[in-house]
Records
---
Amino acid sequence: MAKSIKVGDVATKRFEINQLFTPSTPVTVAELFAGRSGQMLRIIDTIAETGRHAVLYGERGVGKTSLMQVVPFIIPGRKERIRFCRVQAFPNSTFHSLFNQVFKKMTFTADIGEGAQQYDVSQTFTGTITPDDVVMEFGHFTQNDIPIVVLDEFNELTDPETPVLVANTIKALSDAGTNATIIVVGVADNVTQLIENHESIQRCTEQIPMPRMTKDELFEVLDKRLKQLGFTIVPDARWKIVNLAKGLPAYVHGLGKYACLNAVASGRRLHLEECNVDAAIDGLISSSDQSFKDVYEAATRSNQPDNLLKHVLTACALAKVDESGYFKPVAIKEPLSAILGRSVEIANFQNHLKAFIDPKRKQVLHRDGEPRAYRFRFRQPAMQPFVLMKGITDGIVDVDAKRALSSPEQPDLFST
């Protein structure tokens, strides 16, 4: 029998739910960071090996920043002292500004005539910081220190010189045998999109792709939090949350959060059923970033009442994708045929795909490849689950497809 809570405990439980399910922010507590064990082990191995560094890359929303947040907590506890520093790159960032931020977080105590006081390393530099300066400063750490510098959102940089200087720094640190690790993190399909194609650093960098989460990893994200909250869940509801998330952990957080809040509000029950997940879809759509709603509206706007823009876009959200989120036009045929209740060919929606890459429609899709071999993906990965859930709330996705979302077979529903 499902557990329930007293009326007086509802506010407390809602607070706990909002604390554990965090769709808007990266995970910061190691015990709650689920999945990604393979990437974690490779990060640990990289940090442990002197002179080795890492490049972590993947789509937006797959959990790269969350992984970096828990790095200090996953290093095996020994006598060494972890010196962790994460800085975020912005479009106007330069090599100097990035490592100036790093140096501000590196402190030392000195007496320059006014008694012993604490200073940060950035105060010792009056000119532009260079790779040689970084190598020199990291050379001051002892063997009992583990300095780790994370350069996050590296893809945001617009200065073409900075990636070259970072690559030079990585090589110099490696050649010097310095006990420091630089981890470059960003949105990319491959390493060369993040770091200048610097062949000499390939031997000293661990290249770690971060694909979308597997179903098992998403289940781990969900189950860890439900267990801590004391919730149980029926299999159909559990599968629906994971299938809707499309490999993006933020949507497991969002759907899990609103489903739990609905269960507590509607019956003070610590038990999730499919109806709670259905209610969560409405809650998540209503609370979604306004920019998602604006992109969806621009992408599907038409003066023709019988247009199929929403139907084709929803079919794109249902299409099977590869590890990088790309799908081929042929993958749309089955879901669109199911949505329309009739067989369609690529020629029936080719113009729609072309429209979706038009800036006038906010370029909701990104196209890659050559003619006859094009592949597409949502420019913002988080738009894919949003479009799918919008299709459900708007009645575009039929009953059979919605039922399939609660089934382990859903990923093979549209098998093309």
Note: Residues 91 and 156 are 5 Å apart (CA to CA).
---
Amino acid sequence: MPGALEAAAAAAAEKPSSLGGRERAFLVGVEFRSRPHSRPEGGAVAAEDSAHQAVRIPPQARQAKSASKTLRLETEDHAVPFSAEESLAELRELTLSAGAMVVGEVLQRRDRPDAATLIGRGKVEEIAAAAKMAEAGVLIFDHELSSSQLRNLEREFHCRVVDRTQLILDIFARHARTREGQLQVELAQLEYMLPRLAGRGAEMSQLGGGIGTRGPGETQLETDRRKIHRRIKHVKEQIEDVRRIRSQQRQRRESVPVPVVALVGYTNAGKSTLFNALTSAGVVESSRMFATLDPTLRTVTLPSRRDVLLSDTVGFIRNLPTTLISAFRATLEEVQRAAILLQVTDATSPTAAEQMAQVESVLRELEALDKPQIHVLNKIDLFDERTRSRLKDSRGSVHISASRGLHLDRLLAAIDAHLDQDRVERAWLRVPQSEGKALAQLESRSIILSRQYGENETVEFEVDAPESLLRRLSRYVVAPARQPAARRKAVRKKQPPTGR
């Protein structure tokens, strides 16, 4: 059989590609009709039911239903899984993001998974013939495969077989730019590979037991496992160094308290486009899934003149591999420490409600679900005028178009309303005209409601300003502006002009 595999690989290498060397992929979707009667503790779904993972629809998604027929939603308490067709369409997008070309696909529905091949002997023969006709070099399954299933399928298909998790890991490896991102991807790949080493060929078989066959006492499999364990330890140490550097940078930021607002959401929801629209940062925007892996922080000034740090993060996806979540925990710490989460959703997607629920699931795993959230329903420019006119914002949701810049002012106002850190207060200040720095800070960091030039070359202001600014300028504060006007006048007459 190794000879057959080598011959198939050589034939695939010699075959010219019609798209300049892009790999030809054949997709296999699987739907199992039988479901377990109960879920394991903690909400986990059994492996055979992963295609039917039930999700809860947030109320913001139900509100969107009333505005557009494009969102297929049901009641909040009803479980709505991704359909098999929608899941296969998502796999198609993932395959394109990995740089491959889809040459065929098939969807199988069966009662339960086959232990040896997942899809059964008859379907294996059918798919093998279809993949050979399509000249496919790799088969991609929309399901996680065990090591024995991978081995059996590769033997039958005479080409590489990749499951959904491997595909996502490959995309992450393709898009990682920084050293941190590359380390995190490598850790996830090693942790995925470790339990799948067994039975990958004769070179990993046990040593013989007869005379003259007893070896040094370690099989090739054990050697490979030891090497991977050693590499995992080394990568984890490097990631820990990255986390320590991030912690030091965070401590420096927190010494000058600026709240963090993190963008979260399903992959390809438009987070990077929104990030660029608000910050002009110029990060990579792409319609491909997982175009953003490395976190970016930029300052945004709100209508109240408060500054916040906006963080662009990696997108989430259905059944996100746990190895990825653990490997990217250093990156996702920005989500855990954020003051507000902006959950960005593609409002035009037919699976928008399910995507929002999947994001909620990942946030729960990150222990960040209790943080204040604003649901940002993006891409409304793709709706017609009549549909857009019916879209209604609420306190917890805003409809925008990041690419066209529609309603971004409403989003900034919503962030202002949700932000509890460094609250805005109204105050009355008397500042000498010679204090240029204080006057400049008031002009740039506060909303000036009134300005009067008083005696002794002073300027009296009524302002809405952040608490941090009022603390820095406390020696100029005459009285809080929320006091009655008569009281403010009395205080103003009593207090002498304030000097340096």
Note: Confidence is low (pLDDT under 50) at residues 1-20, 36-79, 199-215, 482-500.
---
Amino acid sequence: MSVLTLPNIEPRLAAAIARAYNKWLFDFCQLDRTRLIGAGMLSVHDIKDAIDEARRAKEELGFRAVFLRSNIVNGKNWYDPEYDPLWDALEQLDLPLGFHEATGSRSRQTADWFDPNFAIRIIYSQPFEQMLGLGAFICGGVLARHPKLKVAILEANCSWVPWLLWRMDESYERQGDVFMRDLTMAPSEYFKRQCVVSVEPDEVTALPLMEDLGSHLVFSTDYPHIDSRYPEAVDAFLRLPISDDPKRRILWDNCARFYSVDVEPESTSAGSSERSAR
């Protein structure tokens, strides 16, 4: 998760690391191809390399998505025109993009202000960096220019989403004609059209969101990290006081739609959807 955040890594080395990881992941998924679904790593230190690896991930390895870190690793924000050929390629390949953040990074994170206190850093690093990434894609016009691009915001909670979308809409209403010229509708509408975000198994602060935006949530456990609820993750989620319909959508339907999984869930589908949400 951290190696490709080195800001001055040699692009050919970065591309080779991504290819090696994806080859390992392909081999790992062969253990059970009906349950293990790959999301390929991309290096953005050379956009041509990223496009080539995205195509290989889809066409040769059979992966259903690719992933990036949300924090900026090369000085260019995600709405920079340099990235547009990559977003074009992902649209053409019908390959969803997952943003996954981590507490450690070789490039600057907002939570670095709390270093070396890991307990405080971990509170802020994932959600804050994911907020910045989502804001770049929505308010920076990436989703407006690439209407078929699907984006997942993963492993960073989701209780903050309603507030952030409200805040984006407020800014668009006041300054959008000057600073968000690519947008033709409110930022929250782009989120609803193209995005999903993951919910933690026991994220009780997200209960209202599960009912109201249940079609845009996917299930995540963060296994095998220390904050995972394994092996009680699915049971913890099922105990939440929400109706069965949003539970099914979050555990299975939304993941299956986002990752283009066509098979119906079996009795153990919670485990399958948990894996595809990763």
Note: Residues 264-278 have pLDDT under 50 and may be disordered.
---
Amino acid sequence: MPGSPDEPSGLPEEAEALLQWLAVEQGRAPATLAAYRRDLRAYASWLAERHRSLRSVTEADVVDWIGELRGRGLAPASVARSMVSVRSLHRFLTAEGVAADDPTAAVDRPRVPRGLPKALTEEEVGRLLAAPTGDEPLARRDRALLELLYGTGARVSEVVGLSLGDLDLDASLVRLFGKGSKERIVPVGAHATRALVAWLGEGGRPLVEPARWRRRDDASAVFLGARGGRLTRQGAWDVIRRHGLAVGLGGRLSPHVLRHSCATHMLDHGADIRAVQELLGHATVSTTQVYTLVSTERLWEVYRAAHPRAASASGR
């Protein structure tokens, strides 16, 4: 996507052509295109300082660029993301016949250390879920929100996107729409079901409904904000953070903390990894496997602390 006439893009025409192709042919999101543009602008500027054109880049130049990024102290994930942009550009130029070959073809992708999800302990989750007290409508809403997030492992965006028709509380099921609008049906536990019934019944959601809906979509929302509109993702995160702070978990929270905790605790209790994959809506089981690392580490911690011969037997 070319820059505006008033603001030069700072990119060669070849890079602008790639961005145009990504936008029109691939349908990439504006945020993705903006990230590509930043990465490619930095890359093009670095090449210009070395009097290199995109058509004359060699494999050695690409390796030097990776070294430059690391030398700037960029995180491994940022280096890897930049290389995705650069690799896409050179592949595009080769496919279009602009360049004879792809200088990134033989360059290994920068490795990104696999971080472990931050999960709360079961005791900490219990404190968080018990934090909303009282029987007023928003307290009921907060209990239902927290219980549903932990009970299903759903993403915050999936939960705030729920409409009343997505719930079947008689069967204790909820329909979620994940990434790419992919639909999945997941069970809702007894605690979450009771909390939802309390929120949706008299004394809950009906008392938050406005006299007139500002947007048609708000009328069908499961979770409403204090002013009667559909609860936003930021609003849901504020609920989590506020109650977390109240029970001393402020520094432990992230937007996905209950999702991570749900997956970790299920695996801790012997759940099949394929079932957890289906529950979380992961496209591949490899994404879910990171949670097995968390569970294994917890098992080692318990074993080292409790077994009298753990030090010699573990070999760790």
Note: The two ends are 52 Å apart (CA to CA).
